[in-house]
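tool=predict chain=A
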Amino acid sequence: MFPRHLQHRLIEELEHSPAVALLGPRQSGKTTLALEIAKGRASLYLDLESEHDRARLAVPELYLSDHLDKLVILDEVHRAPGLFPVLRGLIDQARREGRRAGQYLLLGSASLDLLQQSGETLAGRIAYLELGPLNVLETGAEPIDALWLRGGFPDSLTAPSDARSLRWRQNFIRTYLERDIPQFGPRIAAETLRRFWTMLAHHQSGLLNVASLARNLGVDVKTAQSYIDLLCDLLLVRRLPPWHANIGKRLVKSPKVYVRDSGLVHALLDIADKETLLSHPVVGASWEGFVIENLLACAPSTVQAYFYRTSGGAEIDLLLAWPGGALWAIEIKRSLAPKVERGFHAACDDLAPARKLVVYPGQDSFPLGHEVHAVPLLALCQELAMKEPS
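tool=predict ok
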């Protein structure tokens, strides 16, 4: 098992909240992490994709009331939306008996569907955490380039060869399209959604233009928007919002769009190995998305992420807004000799960030002038992780 950066936060939330929802895409390691935490306490694990386990919950009030002294782990909880009102009553019953935390750990593969169900009935009783694929702090001896090429899903990263890793990711995509996605919304033709997902991979790190995507796919704008919303809710795609402060500049207002796991980007584009990746037009955009996902996975949950771009060409790839108002401006370069362009300096003049950083794939940190520092990805991830509030 890979050590997960989120583990201590999950344990802390279980010590203070009656219920915790651990959200993340399938195969990202939610069940493994939940079972690891369960080893140290009385617990009960129920997989709601199992007919046998769902049968136990035919009368959930009776069954779960017999296990109020345990941490009950409910995997793929979206399969049983009727459980949430029951959980609310059981949580309140346990509170009256003096037990106020660590009762339920809910695992789900989507955000909006689960949040809507639980938000209606468990407000004030539940905490939310998101577990993505593995990041550079969790993979240990695995080379960063291997993580970049194969992505952070454990079975993909640890496959015996690049070819087997690619096959796993292709099967993962097919399973999502044909089996998983139809559970969360109206029926969408798998081939149509695959084409849309592939378009997003080609458009990695670009500005989101839903009208253009709709036109290329042959659907209306509302339909294309629903596809984007669905992939974002499934935690497979990220919309990075633009910085929106009123600074007297003409700011770009469209979000940037990323397929969140770099390995899925490469699988959608049939990129099988590092040599093919390095010669592919998506290489820079893929590296940018990979760096952003790793930094956001390691940053404290209180940090907000944006990008900055003006019509005049000023641009920052990633802008981290800290509580209190401090900004970190981060440029992302796939070069061992990174150079800062004029647009980055112009953007920093607009925003006056507290830190100006260039993330690059080397091993050393060094100044680039004008208060800009080049830093390796791993070093910045470590720094962000150390700032996690206790």
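The chain is about 45% helix and 15% strand. The first strand starts at residue 19 and ends at 23.
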